[in-house]
Amino acid sequence: MELSEILTIPFMQRAIISGILLAILLGIFGIFIIPRKMGFIADGVAHGSLLGVAVGLFLGVYPIIFAMILAAVYGALLAKVSNNSRLTHDGLIGLFLTGGMSAAIILLTFIPGYKPELFSYLFGNILSVGWSDLYVLIAAFSITLIVLIKQWRPLIMTTIHNDLSKIIRIHVTTSRYFLFVGTSIALVAGVKLLGVILVSALLIVPVLIANQLGSSFKSTVIISQLVGTLSTFGGIIISYVVDIPTGPTVALTLVIVFSLSSGYSLIRSNLIKKRTSHKHD
Fold it and tell me: What is the pLDDT of residue 132?
């Protein structure tokens, strides 16, 4: 089947649009999350939000709404304890993961019958992405961009040098809440496409690739966006053509690109060292 034919299929259109919007969102947040060494937030929030999915399935209503509300609570708590030395971020994220997953599994045992939707939320399924999911993602995307424009400078300052941002009196509280709450909601918005197990790949891997290839903050942002969107698009197309799960395909595509970029970066650095040593000789 030709690519032009694939792009005319309605569920593929929804999956591709959702995937690209999600890649842009998580790529933006990843730029500020990974330097803070908080990549674990992706697994903790995504797995913990499964409790919201379980509540929605139990009540027979749209599960993503409950998952987003719970994710927003997780994000707010992470922002709240930023200056609390007694409760660390990684400890709190681990608590979300174990507590949310445990409660979700127990609640799901009270739902009678076979639960096929659960596998879509765990591993992702392009067939499960409906118009309502796309509309929710578009709304989250639009709100994020509006707030991001206002919070861009504080986010950059707190990422590069948090202590300096305090000295020059930049208001970091709002940007901190936006970063954690926004990241948490964006992660949950992608669980139907990629699944709670693999949605973290879009937050973490594009930034790691950009760090290998970029030479400045601006180039890192651009590269992470390109890598995230192109890998997501390619992964969705490959998963449909080969008839394999979407989430693992997108994640594996990103891992392959990371491996190639790491090899390229290593070769480039070795060549630079050799040229430098020849000049000194």
Answer: 82
Average pLDDT, the chain: 84
- Could you give the CA distance from residue 270 to residue 213 in angstroms, rounded to a whole number? 14
From residue 180, give the alpha-carbon distance in Å to each of 37, 183, 263. 13, 5, 32
- What is the helix, strand, coil percentage profile of the chain, to 5? 85, 0, 15
Q: How far apart are CA 191 and CA 64, in angstroms?
A: 9
C-alpha span between 236 and 70 (Å, rounded): 28
Q: What is the average per-residue pLDDT within 214-236?
A: 90
Phi and psi for 64 in degrees, rounded to 5? -60, -35
The dihedrals phi and psi of 142, each to the nearest 5 degrees, come to -65, -45
Distance between CA 32 and CA 155 in Å, rounded? 7
**Sequence-separated (6 or more) residues with CB below 8 Å from residue 120:** 128, 192, 195
Kindly indicate the confidence band of residue 196, based on its pLDDT and cuts at 50, 70 and 90.
confident
E-assigned strands of the chain? none
Residues whose CB is less than 8 angstroms from the CB of residue 57 and which lie 6 or more positions away in sequence, other chains included? 63, 108, 111, 115, 117, 118
DSSP symbol at 113: S
CA distance 92 to 88: 6
pLDDT digits (tens, 9 = 90+) for 51-85: 998 898 888 888 888 999 999 999 999 888 865 66
Whole-angstrom distance, CA of residue 11 vs CA of residue 242: 16
Euclidean distance between CA atoms 190 and 195, whole angstroms: 7
